[in-house]
Write a structure and sequence with these properties.
Blueprint: E1 2-4, H1 19-25, E2 28-30, H2 51-76, H3 90-97, E3 105-107, H4 113-118, H5 123-126, H6 128-131, H7 140-143, H8 154-169, E4 175-180, H9 187-198, E5 203-209, E6 212-213, E7 216-217, H10 229-233, E8 237-241, H11 245-260, E9 266-271, H12 290-297, H13 301-312, H14 317-339, H15 359-373
Parallel strand pairs: 3-4, 4-5, 5-9, 8-9
Antiparallel strand pairs: 1-2, 6-7
Length: 383
């Protein structure tokens, strides 16, 4: 089954575009679970999940949202310098993340907290960079999950190059690159599309179209739906309901299997919505209406799956309470972990600049050390 998108998107606060006209312009997308929690079928993309697996997806989304909310609170309390929330995008990330095999490799942006959860990265480790104590608190090769990438769009090139290497090695694993609708305008993304198509790289480009590149709406990024861009590069594109965790799982799994078969790249556009701010330094009330968010809250990915679980009798009140208790424990653990993170050595910034060292870096290190020492008291402690 395919359905029409129904979001009433207002590109500017002054826009008067109606919900009906917006809906008429939205292309079809893959959906397996309606906003009302009803299961529907699709002729090409379908999955048969057990009640346990459905409960697992729900738990993933709830815990990810709880962690994300705790990180936002920590930033507001001065414990983090910045945070990029995924609120509203849990289904896109958990669905695609659970479609991956252990030997697949992930290249994220800076908002893929749900995918990190699926890859087994400790949520507390995600926060070190945002607290300013490290450049990423995990070994990428331990979880096949690369470090967060702040430069917009560059990870698509990294993913393409890695995928080309996977193909040359003869492995049957796949690579996935995450990016947003705003990043789709970057030259790096266009180059990644070109190279992946020409070299038939086993890579999936997963675009989370949350409809706002900071304060710029998708209408300022493209004149056609993003997934249709793939046609110009010679590989398929598909738009999926990004608030439907089942559809995101099914579509991503299919794209990954296609890549493993040697059939090249796929562009997946997860049509979703950023319910929060772009980052904690952003104020979305300056460029979008409250009624727009309210319309998308009715399609909340967690509420959608909970409704389905309840209707099918796959989970009872006691189980939902257990998940809620677990989520609160996670929030507490993350909060305590962040506040106990040790400050880095001030001179560590000079390490690993050059593989074999450099005289100029040595000189700069010595100058900075002397500057730091000038603040020390009589006992040698830095003031």
């Amino acid at each position: 089954m395919t359905v029409e998108g129904t979001a009433a998107r207002k590109p500017r606060r002054s826009s008067k575009r109606t919900s009906a006209s917006a809906s008429a312009k939205e292309p079809q997308l893959v959906q397996l679970l309606t906003p009302e929690g009803e299961r529907v079928q699709h002729p090409e993309y379908d999955i048969d999940l057990s009640p346990e697996e459905l409960r697992g997806l729900y738990r993933d989304m709830v815990l990810t949202r709880r962690f994300d909310a705790e990180a936002t609170s920590l930033q507001r309390q001065g414990e983090l310098g910045l945070w990029a929330s995924l609120l509203g995008q849990e289904a896109a990330q958990i669905g695609s993340g659970r479609a991956l095999r252990d030997d697949d490799y992930v290249f994220p942006t800076y908002r893929e907290h749900g995918v990190a959860w699926c890859r087994g990265v400790d949520p507390a480790n995600l926060l070190g960079m945002f607290r300013g104590v490290n450049h990423g608190g995990w070994d990428p090769n331990s979880n096949n999950f690369h470090l967060y990438t702040i430069v917009i769009g560059s990870q698509t090139l990294h993913a393409t190059g890695y995928a080309m290497g996977v193909a040359k090695d003869g492995a049957d694993s796949a690579v996935i690159a995450y990016f947003g609708d705003g990043a789709s305008s970057q030259g790096d993304v266009a180059e990644a599309f070109t190279f992946s198509a020409v070299y038939n790289a086993p890579v999936v480009f997963f675009c989370q179209n949350n409809q706002w590149a900071i304060s710029e709406p998708t209408e300022r990024q493209t004149r056609v739906p993003l997934y249709q861009r793939a046609q110009g590069y010679g590989f398929p594109g598909i738009r999926v309901d990004g608030n439907d965790v089942l559809a995101c799982l099914a579509v991503t799994r299919s794209a990954l299997e296609r890549a493993r078969r040697g059939e090249g790249p796929t562009l997946v556009e997860a049509f979703t919505y950023r319910m929060g701010a772009h980052t904690t330094s952003d104020d979305p009330t300056r460029y979008r209406h409250d009624d727009e968010r309210a319309a998308w809250e009715a399609k909340d990915p967690i509420l959608r799956l909970r409704t389905h679980l309840e209707k099918q009798g796959h989970a009872d009140a006691a189980w939902f309470e257990e998940v809620e208790t677990e989520s609160e424990a996670l929030g507490k653990r993350v909060r305590e972990a962040v506040r106990s993170m040790p400050d880095p050595d001030h001179l560590a910034i000079f390490e690993n600049v050059y593989a074999d060292g450099h005289a100029l870096v040595d000189e700069e290190r010595a100058q900075f050390a002397a500057y730091q020492a000038s603040f020390a008291d009589a006992d040698g402690e830095v003031k």
